[in-house]
Amino acid sequence: MTIKDTLKRPLRDLRISVMDQCNLRCTYCMPKEVFGADYAFLPSEKLLTFDEIEDLVRIFSSLGVKKIRITGGEPLLRKELPQLIERIISIQGIEDVALTTNGILLGHYAKQLKEAGLKRINVSLDSLNSTTYGQMNGRKFPVERVLKSIEQAAAAGLHIKINMVVQRGVNDGDILPLAKYCFEKGYTLRFIEFMDVGNTNSWNLEKVVPSREILNTLQEMFPLEPINPKYIGEVAKRYRYKNTDKEVGFISSITESFCSTCNRARISADGKLYTCLFATEGTDLVGKIRDEALANKELTDFISELWNKREDRYSDQRVELSKQPSKQKIEMSYIGG
Ligand code: SAM
Ligand code: SF4
Ligand code: SF4
Fold first, then answer.
1. Cα-Cα end-to-end distance for the chain
2. Quick one: which residues bind [4Fe-4S] cluster 1 (predicted)?
3. Which residues line ligand 3 (CB under 6 A)?
4. What is the predicted pLDDT for the residue at 29?
């Protein structure tokens, strides 16, 4: 079944946050000054259970979702995550399951994840320089340990993509070293423009390095050619290193918005549905399961109606919306990337 929103966008991709806590404090996501020792994270009984997640994935699959991304906070902090992945992979209609992680616990879980049937992971890595990486992750966590984890994941047979959030004056000097590292290792690198998600990361336009600028920097060292999108709604614009089968991607939420083909929904760790990364409000699904004991058919109809009414296109409207009195946006660590 295909459901469409008011802009005729289908629902194909579901991102599920399994945990709002994280073992890092990246400055652009969970600045340590805000997410300190007294920050109120969700109590464990509020988190969706694996049974609830499985039920929801079945429902979303019946509405046309084919791709699931497990995210957080840090998803590998969620106990027995490989079991959840195995359960999701076995759901009919789900064609692709991916995991986004900061890589800290990846070495430990790599084999189990592979055995659970996972094929690919995205690891966030913003610099190879230990000082820069330590500053950006807010915990002085050494980059060498993440690099080792990535090697272990690759050795376990997982396909690896590296996500790099680029900030001007912070890690823009790391573009070429990371590109070289990924090229040599055979990992796909994706440059992500620093986004104005949440309310706490001191975002401003001057800190954004536009993808076009990154591409120009990259081309000084590596000749590149554009690749056609694999499907409508692909988030990254992809390029191939000429005369190779290796590629690199750009996620340009700020300078080249892709709302017109956005087919993604997100579920927070406490079971709220968000139809845009920049949303200010979500719709409680877990309450419908736990308190109202809604039957699957009723919940399916409810989600379908919600998607039919969807109008979100924040990135298209960023400039106008930023002039209006602002409501609190949800935080990236709560809803996942
Ligand atoms: N903890 C995991 C990780 O870091 O990979 C998963 C959750 S994290 C919120 C998902 C992705 O969002 C990461 O790749 C991270 O770099 C990205 N991200 C977080 N804040 C961002 C921001 N302000 N702009 C762009 N990307 C951001
Ligand atoms: Fe944690 Fe990921 Fe956010 Fe960094 S980007 S603070 S690792 S959730
Ligand atoms: Fe989708 Fe919202 Fe991002 Fe636009 S701003 S691409 S609607 S998540």
1. 26
2. 22, 26, 29
3. 258-259, 262, 264, 276-278, 312-315
4. 95
> Is the C-beta atom of 100 inside 6 A of ligand 1?
yes
Domain of 94, in residue numbers = 13-335
Residue 316 lies in a domain: yes
Using CA positions, which residue lies closest to atom 17 of ligand 1?
337
Statement: residue 94 has pLDDT above 90: yes
Burial class (CB in 10 A: 0-12, 13-18, 19+), 158: buried
Residues 217/277, Cβ–Cβ less than 8 Å: no
Other C-beta atoms lying within 10 Å of the C-beta of residue 159:
15
Query: Tens of pLDDT along 4-63?
Result: 999 999 999 999 999 999 999 999 999 999 999 999 999 999 999 999 999 999 999 999
Residue 136 in tokens: 């950006």
d(CA 45, CA 236): 36
Mean pLDDT, rounded, for 171-188: 97
Domain harbouring 286, CATH code: 3.20.20.70
The two three-digit tokens of residue 238, written as one number: 């992809």
Report if residue 50 sits inside a domain: yes
Exposure string for 287-296, b = 16+ CB within 10 A, e = fewer: ebbeeeebee
DSSP H helix total and E strand total for the chain: 11, 12
Q: State the average pLDDT for the chain.
A: 94
Chain CA centroid to CA 300, Å: 24
Query: What is the maximal distance between C-alpha atoms in the chain?
Result: 59
Return the closest-CA partner of residue 66 out of 87, 99, 98, 93: 93
> Tens digits of per-residue pLDDT, 190-206?
999 999 888 888 888 99
Q: Over 90: is that where the pLDDT of 318 sits?
A: no
Q: Which residue would you say has higher pLDDT here, 233 or 284?
A: 284
Does a structural domain hold residue 308? yes
46 belongs to a structural domain: yes
Number of domains in the chain: 1
